[in-house]
Amino acid sequence: MVHVTNHSAGANIVGSPKADFRGPGPEVMSAETLQGDEVYNPQGDNLGTIEEIMLDVPHGRIAYAVLSRGGVMGIGDKLYAIPWSALVLDTDRKCFVLDVSTERLNQADGFDKDDWPSMADESWARRVHDFYEQAPYW
To answer: Where's the PRC-barrel domain (predicted)?
Structure first.
């Protein structure tokens, strides 16, 4: 049986129910635990890995996951800000699922590791949320 936990502003969680309730996860986890997780789309295409998890410090929320794709061993990677609510954590496969085709992701505004956008800029944030068809988290 697959358990689905829906959260209005957070990532949804799918997978088998946890056998016991000791320890963290999957509802409360270390951000470090999730960094490096693979991201797939529903068609099974590997879209990249979670490079960073960005916090909205004043509001106490996760704002974005930074997806890294392309390149070799971190060189030449393109980064993408993904609204946290666009991701689904699959606890069985230990990965995230993002409902976007590879072709569509290639159209997204990405950035270089040495030239990040101003993620606190509301107009930038609205464009990102609109692209992934997500309501702003704020």
So the answer is: 27-104
Residue 111 neighbours by CB under 8 Å, 6+ apart: 78, 79, 80, 81, 117
Q: Read off the pLDDT of residues 7-56 as tens digits, 9 standing for 90 and up.
A: 456 788 888 776 666 666 667 788 898 999 999 999 999 999 999 999 99
Tell me, what DSSP letter sits at residue 46?
E
Beta sheet of 78-83, edge-to-edge order: 3-5, 12-15, 87-90, 95-98, 38-40, 46-56, 61-69, 78-83
- The architecture (CATH level 2) of 3-131 comes to Roll (2.30)
Q: Which two tokens stand for residue 44?
A: 């099974």
| pTM of the model as a whole | 0.83
